[in-house]
Write a structure and sequence with these properties.
It is a single chain. The protein has a single domain, classed as Antirestriction protein ArdA, domain 3 (Arc Repressor Mutant, subunit A, Orthogonal Bundle), CATH 1.10.10.1190. Helix content is 46%, strand content 20%. With 103 residues, the protein is an alpha+beta fold.
Length: 103
Amino acid sequence: MIEEEQQKERVSLLVENHCSNEEEAIDFDENNFFMELDCHINDAYEQIAERMVDDGLYGEIPENLTHYIDYEAIGRDLKCGGDFVVIESVEGRTALIFVWYNR
């Protein structure tokens, strides 16, 4: 039941901000990778970059080189690529970032 409520919230956000109707939003939500971030909208792409590196999407990075990774620069590149839909949802004082990767 909780998953259904969460999907309804995501679909509503997609209709308001990205998709033209509910059917398109449901299809988009079900067919794209989704993640939820707890950060400011300005930091969303940097957080996405960190997750992608941590998940090994850039290959295995030796521990001694991790301090040299520029997550901000990777985030800017991701933002320019257009493969992500990032929507901020503010309820009360809490802001959640909803991210869909449509690659």
